[in-house]
Amino acid sequence: DQQVKQNSPSLSVQEGRISILNCDYTNSMFDYFLWYKKYPAEGPTFLISISSIKDKNEDGRFTVFLNKSAKHLSLHIVPSQPGDSAVYFCAANNEKLTFGTGTRLTIIP
Amino acid sequence: GAGVSQTPSNKVTEKGKYVELRCDPISGHTALYWYRQSLGQGPEFLIYFQGTGAADDSGLPNDRFFAVRPEGSVSTLKIQRTERGDSAVYLCASSLLGANGYTFGSGTRLTVV
User: Fold this and answer.
1) What distance in Å separates residue A17's CA from the closest CA in chain B?
2) Which residues of A are less than 8 Å from B102 in CB distance?
3) Is A97 in contact with B33 (Cβ distance < 8 A)?
4) What is the mean pLDDT of each run of 10 residues along chain A (109 residues)?
């Protein structure tokens, strides 16, 4: 039973363009949502988060949007840079983090 | 230390053997988590410690898996009678009490042959 879903296993975006990564969840008890970025042979690193009482949080090139009625969140990266190429995990918190399966983002120079 | 440290970084073991994976969390972090990541999947929750006690061990797949944190700092994940299906990256994370985000270590890649 996958409570957090990332339906796109991979995404390729031209450098300088916007990258949009999507995430859906099923459990309405989640109260906090996070995005993690992972490079090969490293652990996931925290990128940005949003509380369930907000609908948007922005940090530099990264913005996370939350649509509670649709149980959907998205991560926007603009402009995309080659160093953004990594696997991105969506995670939701309800006493512990539940992760999606990840989206591999490739930025094309 | 500055980050979460996991040792060994890689472990190859024969089917049926016993293994121990170690996690050294960030100093002062009271919460410690173990996750397992299989190929093509996201991290899956195994167990969570608050101090010395296991607050939630609902993710441990069976009784071959056990974890301890005797002094509320370093934790050891123990796997008995390893099976090939146990092969995965085992991730440890720590956080301050009540924090929403965790800091992860680089993981231990376990391969059971």
Assistant:
1) 26
2) 46, 97
3) yes
4) 92 98 95 95 94 96 97 98 97 92 97
